[in-house]
TrEMBL record:
Cross-referenced PANTHER family: ALPHA-L-ARABINOFURANOSIDASE 1 (PTHR31776)
Domain of life: Bacteria
Protein name: non-reducing end alpha-L-arabinofuranosidase
Species assigned in the record: Lacihabitans lacunae
Family according to the record: Belongs to the glycosyl hydrolase 51 family.
Keyword entries, A-Z: Glycoprotein, Hydrolase, Signal
Length: 657
């Protein structure tokens, strides 16, 4: 019996020793390999999940110009029953197309009995968020037809109590803008706004608007400060906009047309959002695009956060998941001209037509546009023919503008393989690939680009996100397993920086109560926003890219999942630091023997890490910091260090060379 016990003990000791055998990882800081593009890590924006109207665009009034399919959507008459069936005081929709054909509907207010209250109430987007002591800018366009109707604006809390009020008087006969400033005396998550009219007379009113004064950079009528800050904190290399499937439209009439999104706000023509009726499980009948966030604002946002703009334009082919409506090749000239004119709008001299408009809007200096995407997620010969035609026109007039094309909606299969064969023949430069897969796919494909053809086009990993329950499944969560799997995959993107030039997670934003698609990188409600575990993975990669890749090996091989470890390394010539990224997907700690060639005898560094044992955990609007990075300092002697890599962790080491 004693001999058996000794044998079992010896086996256990041996197994334990084997389990603790360090994994040797070697980094050669003397041999930089490939440049890492400044555009390597960026952001993809699409107006889905109420990401623009009701989200990033800080307008608080829904259907401000009464141009939704049903003009009163978002509005309620005050008092509702009496106003609708009253011949003394009336609110009616009046057609004003002769004055403004882009936004023809206005509200006509007739007051014949000044003793009775009349007004409008707006519900906002899932209510209206107000912050205590914050100031709000009200404005509207008004035409006085007779009398002298007064306008009072009221902010309401959830109990319909007034928490702020101001008067916006007017006396102009022709159309003019009235304004007022209101201060909220309470913080409210789901408030409302009343616009009350008094005194006998008749006015027409349109573009009723309310913005917080505390916007990004304090711009009047601008963007939500907290949401832009989350983007700026990522230090993205590019911003891809405006999508996404809304570029294509369900039909060509519903495609995104950039020229309708620039110029004066009041002249921009509203369009139904293609996500309005896409998913039966998440209907959004009140989802429209006002284009207050238009191409000028996208360019400005990109400039603000130090990112290259990457606009995506229609190629004359509507969404192939929907209508597949196709413009004949001999009728494609307007699409070609739109693309060429966009370069003039972004980069042209102020004496050109579109450059002059940019200057008139407040930006005389060019935006220095360097690249444009042609089509979003199209496939087949219809797409290749249209891309070729537009590409040829660009290479004649703007040969230095890089063009982004795509391989369709998937990263494999017949459509993908067809694109892989066709695009090199069209001299494609940067090709957009999309991956919406389960977490295991991301872990298994960390070596996807290790053997890609180095003489072919460059890759833009333009849309990817691990799906915890399946693509377009409403149960998808931004959990740690998904984020950790993406981190493993991204080490492969970075390691192959000679092939992969750009990457971005998708979608970007989602309102916690108004989403159509999940998972998403950043979630928000009417008052706050937060980053998911996936956001912090993206941010850590984008904040720590380096300028060139370095060899990082174990037993002479790239780390693509051996011993459940993934790795990439780079050198940052700006800071003279070696950067090492390590991902441990195991439920056990891993002992790492790190050997860095080319360091000083003694070097200092920082360790930035996300460690979470529960793979199903995720951040929420109420608990936004369940999964966040932490940071510590360390030193390394003669380039060697023994590390214990925590289970289910993503860690970055920045070491002074």
């Amino acid at each position: 019996m004693n001999n058996i016990k000794k044998l079992i003990f010896a086996i256990l000791i041996g197994a334990n020793a084997a389990a603790q055998t360090p994994i040797k990882i070697e980094v050669d800081a003397t041999k930089p390999l490939f440049p890492i593009q400044p555009t390597m890590y960026g952001i993809f924006f699409e107006d889905i999940n109420f990401g623009a109207d009701g989200g990033l665009y800080a307008e608080l009034i829904k259907n401000r110009s009464f141009e939704f399919e049903y003009p009163w959507m978002g509005w309620k008459h005050i008092p509702e029953a009496e106003t609708r069936f009253n011949t003394e005081n009336e609110l009616t929709i009046y057609n004003n197309s002769k004055t403004n054909p882009q936004n023809p509907r206005v509200v006509r207010v007739d007051i014949r009995n000044a003793t009775k209250t009349i007004g409008l109430q707006n519900e906002g987007f899932d209510g209206i968020g107000f912050k205590k002591d914050a100031k709000y800018d009200f404005s509207a366009f008004v035409r006085s037809n007779k009398g002298n109707v007064n306008i009072e604006v009221q902010l309401l809390n959830e109990k319909d109590e007034i928490i702020g009020t101001a008067k916006a008087s007017q006396s102009s006969i022709s159309w003019g803008k009235v304004e007022a400033v209101l201060t909220a005396n309470q913080t409210v998550q789901k408030g409302k706004v009343n616009v009350i009219f008094s005194e006998v007379g008749q006015i027409d009113i349109d573009l009723i608007s309310l913005f917080p004064q505390d916007t990004w950079k304090g711009r009047k009528g601008g963007l939500r400060k907290d949401m832009v800050q989350l983007l700026a904190d990522m230090k993205p290399g590019f911003v891809r906009f405006p999508g996404g499937c809304i570029v294509e439209g369900r039909t060509l009439a519903e495609r995104y047309q950039w020229k309708k999104t620039v110029g004066k706000i009041e002249d921009r023509e509203l369009l139904i959002n293609r996500w309005n009726k896409e998913f039966s499980h998440r209907p959004a009948p009140d989802y429209y695009q006002t284009f207050g966030l238009g191409f000028y604002e996208y360019f400005l946002l990109s400039e603000d956060i130090g990112a290259e703009p990457l606009p995506i334009l229609s190629c004359g082919l509507a969404c192939q998941f929907n209508s597949s409506e196709t413009t004949p090749l001999d009728e494609l000239d307007p699409f070609v001209q739109d693309a060429l004119d966009l370069v003039e709008f972004a980069n042209g001299d102020i004496n050109t037509k579109w450059g002059a408009l940019r200057a008139e809007m407040g930006h005389p200096a060019p935006f220095n546009l360097k690249m444009i995407g042609i089509g979003n997620e199209q496939w087949g010969q219809e797409y290749f023919d249209r891309y070729e035609l537009i590409s040829k026109a660009f290479k004649v007039k703007y040969p230095n503008i890089k063009l982004v094309s795509g391989t369709g909606p998937g990263a494999e299969g017949e459509l993908f393989e067809q694109a892989e064969k066709a695009l090199p023949k069209l001299n494609a430069e940067i090709v957009d690939e999309h991956y919406y897969k389960d977490p295991k796919w991301f872990r298994d494909n960390a070596n996807r680009y290790d053997k890609y053809d180095r003489n072919r086009y460059k890759i833009f990993a333009g849309e990817y996100a691990a799906q915890s329950h399946g693509v377009v499944n409403p149960d998808n969560k931004n959990n740690w397993e998904c984020a950790l799997s993406e981190a493993a995959f991204m080490t492969g993107l970075e390691r192959n920086a000679d092939v992969v030039y750009m990457t971005s997670y998708a979608p970007l934003f989602a309102h916690v109560n108004r989403w159509q698609w999940t998972p998403d990188l950043i979630w928000f409600d009417n008052l706050t926003s937060f980053g998911t575990a996936n956001y912090y993975v993206q941010k850590l990669f984008a904040n720590n890219p380096g300028t060139s890749t370095l060899p990082i090996k174990s037993n002479g091989e790239n780390l693509t999942g051996q011993n459940e470890i993934y790795a990439s390394s780079s050198f940052d010539e700006k800071t003279n630091e070696v950067i090492i990224k390590l991902v441990n997907i195991s439920t056990e700690a891993k002992s790492i023997e790190l050997d860095i060639k080319g360091l000083a005898k003694r070097a200092s560094g920082r360790n930035i890490k996300i460690v979470e044992s529960d793979l199903k955990k995720y951040n929420t609007i109420d608990q936004p910091n369940k999964i966040t990075p932490s940071e510590s300092l360390f030193t390394i002697e003669k380039g060697k260090s023994m590390l214990s890599l925590a289970p289910n962790s993503f860690q970055i080491f920045r070491i002074k060379k």
